[in-house]
Amino acid sequence: MGENAVQYRVESLKDLAIIINHFNKYPLITKKQADYTLFNAKAAAYYLIKNKSHLTNKGILELVALKAVLNRGLSKDLGVAFLI
Question: Fewer beta carbons below 10 Å: N end or C end of the chain?
Fold first, then answer.
């Protein structure tokens, strides 16, 4: 990181809520908005966990489905475990 850089580390759901709320209130106006749109898809996982939906069969399958389409997808082990 450079001399003028700032880093914010997210280590809890509470910290993640701060990020989500900030960018929902103050949308980005550069090409970074596209990055945030992708990030916001990940935020769906945040809401599943926050609402404890991930503790149900349907919720865990939604969480796994989100993971499957974001970033690098599912690991081989998770794919086998969820028959994907």
Answer: N
Which amino acid makes up residue 45? A
Burial degree of 2 (CB within 10 A; 0-12, 13-18, 19+): exposed
Distances (CA, A) of 34 to 9, 31, 64: 21, 6, 23
pLDDT, tens digit, 9 for 90 and up, residues 33-83: 777 776 776 678 888 888 999 999 999 988 888 777 665 656 677 667 766
Question: Which amino acid type is present at position 23?
Answer: F
Hey, what are 56's tokens? 């149900």
Cβ neighbours for 2, distance < 8 A, ≥ 6 positions apart: none
3-state secondary structure of 56: coil
Q: Which single residue is written with the structure tokens 């993971």?
A: 67
